[in-house]
Amino acid sequence: MAITNFIQELWSAGVQSAYAQAQVVIPTLTNTFSGTAARGNTVHIIGAVTPTIVDYADEGRTISAEALSDTEVLLQINQEKAFSVYVDDVDLTQVNGTFDAWVQSAGRALAEDSETYVLGKLLDEGTEAGTPTINSGETAKAAIRLVRKTLADSKVPAANRYLVVNPAMSDLLLAGLSDVALAGSADELRNGMLGRLYGFSVLESALLGDPDVPTAVGYHSAAVAFASTIDKVEALRAPNKFADIVRGLHVFGRKILRTDALCMGIYNNAT
Predict the structure, then answer these.
(1) CATH fold of 123-223+260-266, please?
(2) H helices present in the chain, as ranges
(3) pTM listed for this prediction
(4) I want to staple 103 with a disulfide (CB 3.0 to 4.6 A). Which of 14, 161, 216, 248 is the partner?
(5) The pLDDT of residue 188
(6) In what order do the strands lie in the sheet with 79-88?
């Protein structure tokens, strides 16, 4: 690939597309913000304040308006992750000059990195919903019911609730298939989507916690905000070999908006 044939916008869009397609949890988070998600920037997450509800009849069927107000949360773009790879001229010739394989690989790697970061923060900052021993489908479902109750007790809205589990947990949950609807969701083809259980859309991620320890995180989409951008993708000729160097920079940040809408469980699976 000659540098003169490298179209930055095309490859940047390709990495961004592959990055988005490989995500499991990030698409379920709050990602609406004002500002520019660039290195060192701070973006603004705007939320509405709940209005006061009054008894209209008791007030003589008159009502005074209250001023609209909102809550503003600042989210700092403080994570910077990069890749830099050689694209050998011989390798490129053997794949008919296409760069798609490298684009897809870079996007998937960036997605795995940011999902690992987000999932780690969910475990670190979520409210713990007990640590029962689970070793069967029934005990696993009982643990998830406790997660559901914890969120319900905090008056977390029933809509847009998600449950992300690691394979050790999903294996136990799938033992109770009668309770898991594997179809009927508009998002059933989403990466990692298992179905629905106890009002949760259930997602599976091998990046959550210890792969050998059943782990689950229940949350509402408004609990966590995430902002990111592929800041730059560029190519330059390698100085000492017949190859190009392609490198890119991904910047992002996350913010917990409602700790009461985020609940986690790391379970003992001893028999």
Answers:
(1) hypothetical protein PF0899 fold (3.30.2320)
(2) 8-21, 89-94, 100-125, 137-153, 167-173
(3) 0.81
(4) 14
(5) 47
(6) 79-88, 243-256, 224-237
